[in-house]
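User: I'm preparing a small set of examples for a lab meeting where we compare how different chains pack in three dimensions. I only have the primary sequence for this one, and I'd like the structure in token form so I can line it up with the others. Please keep the answer compact; I'll paste it straight into my notes.
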Amino acid sequence: MKEVSVAGIELNNQNEFALICGLNVLESDEVLTKVVEETLAITKKLSIPFIFKASYDKANRSSKDSYRGPGIKEGLRTLKSIKEDYSIPVISDVHSLEEVAPAADVLDIIQIPAFLCRQTDLVGECAKTNLPINVKKAQFLSPGDMKNIIDKILSFDNERILLCERGTIFGYSNLIVDMLGLAELKDFEYPVIFDVTHSLQQPGGLGKSTAGRRHHVLNLAKSAMALGLAGLFLEVHPNPDKALCDGPCALPLDKLEDFLSQIKALDSLTKGLPTLEIT
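Assistant: Understood. Below is the structure token output for the 279-residue chain.
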């Protein structure tokens, strides 16, 4: 069983789960401060390791008119302030080779977006930073296809790999999560992260933006975390209906403590059960 250390957080599929949580994209200082401070207070109360997530640029929005974020320069400056002011690790996604070096100066984990996870040059450039790499499995890939991506990262002598499930295309404007596929990801023995909010997407469901099914967020999170995973990836918002990106999938911030209490109880139960090998 492989382990990846991030700012003192030991990520593996047997330890208590870590929470990667925040906003889909950086918004106003008011929204950002509320999300960071309330999430930090809740995770401290529940003793859940917390890594803050937000994108500085959403380069893959449905429409040219969609909000993309503040951009790399201002966005990294904001993420650096959060990291220093609150003493929490941060993660964000990169979209081009030119972004990797400046992002690596700030981030504790570099994330490779699902649509870009097979881009060899980008994967290699990220791997060369020797930072942990959170690879989002593309919606069109099978779990077994991730072996080639793992091999690409290993070829740069970087073993700090996180495998992230975010749903699989199932017809038009629909995603599903294959629980057996999640179990197959675990067979690689790297820490597995479940991105519950993006798995709730209905791509293009609102025409110029993505629809979602946030009313199912707890159901889906419980289903996946019952397998015993290293982490849960979750996006929250004080008012999801007013969110600037992916509001239909975001968990309302005022539901976070109750949500995490249930996930923590399930995670503890799952990882406390004896291993049962069935062949």
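A couple of notes for your slides: The domain at 4-272 is CATH 3.20.20.70 (TIM Barrel). The first helix runs from residue 29 to 46.

User: Perfect, thanks.
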